[in-house]
Amino acid sequence: xxxxxxxxxxxxxxxxxxxxxxxxxxxxxxxxxxxxxxxxxxxxxxxxxxxxxxxxxxxxxxxxxxxxxxxxxxxxxxxxxxxxxxxxxxxxxxxxxxxxxxxxxxxxxxxxxxxxxxxxxxxxxxxxxxxxxxxxxxxxxxxxxxxxxxxxxxxxxxxxxxxxxxxxxxxxxxxxxxxxxxxxxxxxxxxxxxxxxxxxxxxxxxxxxxxxxxxxxxxxxxxxxxxxxxxxxxxxxxxxxxxxxxxxxxxxxxxxxxxxxxxxxxxxxxxxxxxxxxxxxxxxxxxxxxxxxxxxxxxxxxxxxxxxxxxxxxxxxxxxxxxxxxxxxxxxxxxxxxxxxxxxxxxxxxxxxxxxxxxxxxxxxxxxxxxxxxxxxxxxxxxxxxxxxxxxxxxxxxxxxxxxxxxxxxxxxxxxxxxxxxxxxxxxxxxxxxxxxxxxxxxxxxxxxxxxxxxxxxxxxxxxxxxxxxxxxxxxxxxxxxxxxxxxxxxxxxxxxxxxxxxxxxxxxxxxxxxxxxxxxxxxxxxxxxxxxxxxxxxxxxxxxxxxxxxxxxxxxxxxxxxxxxxxxxxxxxxxxxxxxxxxxxxxxxxxxxxxxxxxxxxxxxxxxxxxxxxxxxxxxxxxxxxxxxxxxxxxxxxxxxxxxxxxxxxxxxxxxxxxxxxxxxxxxxxxxxxxxxxxxxxxxxxxxxxxxxxxxxxxxxxxxxxxxxxxxxxxxxxxxxxxxxxxxxxxxxxxxxxxxxxxxxxxxxxxxxxxxxxxxxxxxxxxxxxxxxxxxxxxxxxxxxxxxxxxxxxxxxxxxxxxxxxxxxxxxxxxxxxxxx
Length: 822
Ligand SMILES: *[C@@H]1O[C@H](CO)[C@@H](O)[C@H](O)[C@H]1NC(C)=O
Ligand SMILES: *[C@@H]1O[C@H](CO)[C@@H](O)[C@H](O)[C@H]1NC(C)=O
Ligand SMILES: *[C@@H]1O[C@H](CO)[C@@H](O)[C@H](O)[C@H]1NC(C)=O
Known about the structure:
Elements: H1 34-56, E1 86-87, E2 96-99, E3 106-112, E4 124-125, E5 136-142, E6 147-154, E7 157-166, E8 174-183, E9 193-201, E10 207-213, E11 217-225, E12 229-235, E13 249-258, H2 264-271, E14 272-278, E15 286-291, E16 305-315, E17 318-326, H3 338-360, H4 369-384, E18 387-391, E19 394-396, E20 404-405, E21 409-413, E22 424-425, H5 426-436, H6 441-452, E23 464-465, H7 469-472, E24 481-483, H8 492-502, H9 507-527, H10 574-594, H11 599-609, H12 611-618, E25 619-620, E26 625-626, E27 629-632, E28 636-640, E29 657-661, E30 666-669, H13 676-683, H14 692-702, E31 708-709, E32 712-713, H15 741-754, H16 762-787, E33 793-794, E34 801-802, H17 814-819
The structure holds 2-acetamido-2-deoxy-beta-D-glucopyranose (NAG) (3 copies).
């Protein structure tokens, strides 16, 4: 994906990608008075010089968009939005909460699971890591507002984590956690005991005052921070699953200073000592690792965190609770623990189940209880995986030498994957919100507003949002920089199209969005223009024609999907053209809705929807499909270079795998690339229902030699010479065969559409719709049952999930396919 996911290649500014042309394209005026004209010219020249200088430093790239922001400065505060203030907004940890504020205090859970015959300490579980090889984890129920229920399976352990919030006071109210640990049946010998580590940490502001009682047991802590005022957190002693007890436990406790929230795991690991003994009455004595001491950083260096850890070492099964109570709640009836918590949890689960059925109707449609649970898990982990980030991007403009810091700001967004991509990605988010807006359209509007408030003065929105230290630790330094000339599919137009159809956006919201929307549209129309009018080109492709079998197009979101073999300004990209057709149509709708001039957008929408023009620019008669156009040859291959010594007698350099071109490229339609890109006129429903090409695309979809599999549509035809091909020695195929759920969602949605339009292919589309939908839902469900996860992509030969996981980003769109909401 344009997220430069597994295989990242930094994009550089290129000579013919000189960014926006606006300033340079000023027209002269025929002056009336000569003097005025001279003066005017002088002013224009001076202004242009200053402008040019500033631009030369890349100033615009890091200047916020001039339109009024959509979200008020304190819009996320406890005063303005108390219900959303606290949340599980730390998707990258197995369990964590924070507030929607810039320097939020955080709470979290870690655990140590000793295994027989292994010297302590066991591996620390904290941040979601694929290398932890958990059998599964994720929110099974989460309403995005008041409660969540998660299950985690780790080597014979089943951890259930639950939270409930309760409104009240002026600071976002109270909440409680319950963590239940039990041995997993059928998973070998049960673990003898477990250490659960609950922590609270500040982020550069605020104070924590722990209250420790006998034998290192942290009973509670009080604290004060900017946003929370005073609060108390109480740690209850462990009980049985039914709440009886307390159970025997050993306690450890740590109060330390850390170099920031991103260092919490390191601090805890460094503080662990294996000298402690767990000795339940009548049971064997066992050594375990407990938090002990930590030598913090010297004063006054970087932003510091105060960290308090409460470690409980206890036998399974057990239940632990922790209650956060806000100092400004004055009329608290009963504490939210024990039986009260049990009841609240039960009523939230019941309310969730009812609302889920109202929104998606899966029981009505006859899905089994297991299938419904799967859909709830897919949906809940997307919603419960939403994050609140605060920080700045690092942006490279084509006009500046070095990357520059972007203005600081917040981002409230869903994430593709809690383990591998726990941060915002532009084109993913458009897909995420297609699902979430069916649950809570107001939430989607707020997310959209957050993204649009991150727009710069050029109308560009950074496509990968790495905001704050915690987010940054997940990304290698060389990939942090965002390029202000790089686009990404504008999927937010899909969301707007849906919100408009739902009647879910009000006029004041649309009105405040409109100036930014116009700039965004204009950014694409201007900077991604193609060589001929009404064609488009993804700028910023890899330029190296020697290293790569096919130079990548990260900005398109489809990374290594085959394009013209030799990148050039002559290229026209079919998918981008179709995205622009959608964008123009939605812009026209919004403008009409607001009574703003819509003519230009309507004109553009009409031209881009014109099937004749589409054919002229993209129908490759000889290939009998829609295609990109560019400087292309299919006769390329990777071959081992025969190394020669740099000078006689010196050792041979290591051999390199290089591309050889057997037949020179020429301008033509891009052959050998039938796949998702070819389908775009259908996917975005630009083809007229009576277009003969609709029949061709349907046939390509249904052909097993091309795109059809029993598990969904593969990304690239089996007949393509690049099918499943590595792009370099170490760069495995990504969008070259695997099944991706976002594009399959578009396909199912389009087939649903064409199955209802009068035309020669109506029947065929309708039956393909049924088949494709059943294949996708069936496989994603089955893989979840077998592996415990939703996956980034699925293998086109076996249906097996592959790539990062859990991937409850756009793969969770399977819920919309089940409920047939398009
Ligand atoms: C936002 O809240 C902070 C802290 O409560 C306050 O100091 C600031 O004045 C508020 N800003 C606005 C724009 O309301
Ligand atoms: C998009 O760009 C083209 C070419 O520059 C221009 O003619 C057209 O008016 C633009 N469309 C809109 C809606 O701005
Ligand atoms: C196509 O690529 C070749 C090889 O780089 C180059 O020599 C040729 O000029 C290119 N043709 C066009 C039309 O860009």
